[in-house]
Amino acid sequence: MNDVSRRSFITQTATLAAAAPLLASGVSDAAANSPKKKLGFALCGLGSLSTHQIAPALQKTKNCRLAGIITGTPSKADAWSAQYNIPKKNIYNYDTMDKLANNPDIDVVYVVTPNSLHAQHTIAAAKAGKHVFCEKPMEISPERCEQMIAACKQANRMLGVAYRCQFEPNHLECVRLARSKEFGDLRIIQAGFGFAIGDPAQWRLHKALSGGGALMDVGIYCLQTTRMLTGEEPVSVFAAEAKTDAQKFAEVDETITWQAKFPSGVISNCTTTFRVNGLQGFRAFADKGWFGLDPAYFYNGIHGARSDGKEISIPQEDQFAAEMDDFAQCILEKRQSKVSGEEGLRDIRILTAIYESVRTGKEVKLG
Amino acid sequence: MNDVSRRSFITQTATLAAAAPLLASGVSDAAANSPKKKLGFALCGLGSLSTHQIAPALQKTKNCRLAGIITGTPSKADAWSAQYNIPKKNIYNYDTMDKLANNPDIDVVYVVTPNSLHAQHTIAAAKAGKHVFCEKPMEISPERCEQMIAACKQANRMLGVAYRCQFEPNHLECVRLARSKEFGDLRIIQAGFGFAIGDPAQWRLHKALSGGGALMDVGIYCLQTTRMLTGEEPVSVFAAEAKTDAQKFAEVDETITWQAKFPSGVISNCTTTFRVNGLQGFRAFADKGWFGLDPAYFYNGIHGARSDGKEISIPQEDQFAAEMDDFAQCILEKRQSKVSGEEGLRDIRILTAIYESVRTGKEVKLG
What we know:
The structure is a homodimer. By secondary structure, chain A is of the alpha/beta class. Chain A folds into 2 domains: 3-164 and 321-336, NAD(P)-binding Rossmann-like Domain (Rossmann fold, 3-Layer(aba) Sandwich); 169-315 and 348-365, Dihydrodipicolinate Reductase, domain 2 (2-Layer Sandwich). Helix content of chain A is 36%, strand content 20%. Chain A contains 11 helices and 15 strands. Chain A has helices at 3-18, 29-33, 48-58, 74-84, 118-127, 142-154, 169-179, 207-210, 214-230, 319-332, 341-360, and strands at 39-44, 64-70, 91-92, 108-111, 131-134, 159-161, 186-194, 236-242, 255-261, 267-273, 280-286, 289-293, 304-306, 311-312, 364-365. Chain A has a 9-stranded mixed β-sheet with strand order 14-13-12-11-7-10-9-8-15.
């Protein structure tokens, strides 16, 4: 689709959406009734993830379209507007989000700002009557997650957290192997995700913006894996931190290892780091064999192995497109997303407990 | 070499050794002066490991020969005597070990009895003037290890612990990679070793004999890996246990995960189990890449990978033959073995701290 025809298409669907008033049910009549309706997404925060992953992924979705942007950087607004044919009226900054209420082009605000701004931007979007899809980690404290959930509930809007692996078919195959007990009861899960972080000036290294380091940013993937495979919530966590670059990681964790016990007796052993590359995958050990993915958490190329010699290698679509299409579908069908705000909150409670264990040197009970 | 010529050879070297009085230096003149001297090993405890690994390995050694046996089972004595041409005079039971003092055929007693008998048998052998090679774990408490070290020191005999991986060339290549910093400074080590244990009646599941379960039996390999790669002693450990079969593992640990911090900032994350198969290997992550072995701890087929795509695949001789030959060489050259009693004691101190962490739910500092 060339620029002109794409612009025509966007204009056409925008007009359609403009005709439909927002309903208390949380979805417009037009959205609910028209199978061809693509929900309009506004990206809130135009950093690297929005630029290199989410905006390109939106072009691949079935149910979504990039309808607007919310940014604090005027030069980015101009560039995005030109690249994606976003009309000026669909461009906002963080102080004008209340005006979203008057814009029927926008159905969903996808919050991609630094972690500690998620609550502020989610609540602003919900108050403006928009559904919210929010990057993980959901926020930097359970209290803020609860505020986000309450705001969306009050506005009768849906809240989803961007756990892309929950829509990745190789991850889902591992969940199937675990839950079906094809290899018997699960006993041990090993998982690790990390990378050598670059630019020391980035927000991920500043606690006020990130809430934490490697654990918040990539350790959460390992935690998700353990919860997805077991289908359980951990009853306790045990964690330790290593810091070798006290300057770069003055505010946040560099490397954290943690163990979690689950009600069925499964124990997980996870490692996350901002220090080194190569830590990337998980393996689950059950009574009659093992299975796992390596790499597990990249944007593509997910691949796995099983103890019986078979490969786990299911063709993948764009993970960001998949999660956005699912969220849009949930909105259209008026059903709760599996990556709800409550799901995001559970992780933040556990991450908070892991930090408490690091701080106290003690096992921390949960629930 | 056929049976007759092997017997002739053994008789010849036995006669040679018989002519040499034991010296306070801990090695006979004949042993020290004759490059052809093979040290006589007596295996103490004729269980599966002695039967299937150590006795066959002794046939492959350069510096050792199977000269005697110590067993509490007369039927085993007969079978071994016939199979390995062991003269009746070189067969002992646990109550007659003091008589080893009068037998110049025996230079070394290799203690392969259950863990909690290692001190008793080591001390008996030392008192009889024999060098002692002892299976790992060295014993079930630091105090008993110290008694073993003291007894061997008092008898002026050498004490070695059977850490076969310290002589395995692929492990040594990983140590070289770590210490030479070929991939930069080491940061994280992940290691796991476990298997689904069979016969519920075996001594490994009885605490009085084993001192502990998976951690004592196979977790110790992971601990060794972390200490070998770093060349450091951990400053603290943090551990958790999972038990899913409370009957089978009523006395000992089924699965333990632990984290250890090292002075240079390296953190290790290890898992050991008697519950499932497949947990077998380690990976070390450094600033510029990673390397590791998988499988790492089997008797053969050790194989590894590096982040630059190169394989680690060095031809291996029998690991048991290698460790016994080295111990014999140390005796012949009157130098301390790298797998000394002190090395064994270090591990037992750390394993004891790991159990304390499991019990208390707290990080345990190490001196």
